[in-house]
Amino acid sequence: MEPIPLRVIEDSQQQWQEMAREELNQVIESSKALARVVLLRHQGENTTNYLLTTWGGDMNG
Q1: What whole-number distance in Å separates Cα of residue 28 and Cα of residue 5?
Q2: Which domain of life does the UniProt lineage start with (predicted)?
């Protein structure tokens, strides 16, 4: 199993919604790590948020 990918992004607080949209539209390959993490550091603030995206599998039976 591969390590979980981690991206650290310096951004303004308004960009987190755009980043969440991008993550939701990216495919997670089941042959690789089944999760991704993005750390969002907000410029000019002492705030860090994270976005954890995981693979849910195919529930179509």
Answers
A1: 11
A2: Bacteria
3-class state of residue 6 by DSSP: strand
In a domain, 18, yes or no: yes
Over the stretch 11-47, which tens digit does the pLDDT of each residue have? 766 677 888 888 889 888 888 889 999 998 887 878 8
* Side-chain-side CA neighbours of residue 21 (13 Å): 5
Q: Across the strands, what pairs with 6? A: 37
In a domain, 46, yes or no: yes
* Residue 44 belongs to some domain of the structure: yes
Residue 6 CB neighbour total at 10 angstroms: 10
Structure tokens given for 50: 């994270």
C-alpha radius of gyration, the chain, whole number: 13
Name the domain count of the chain: 1
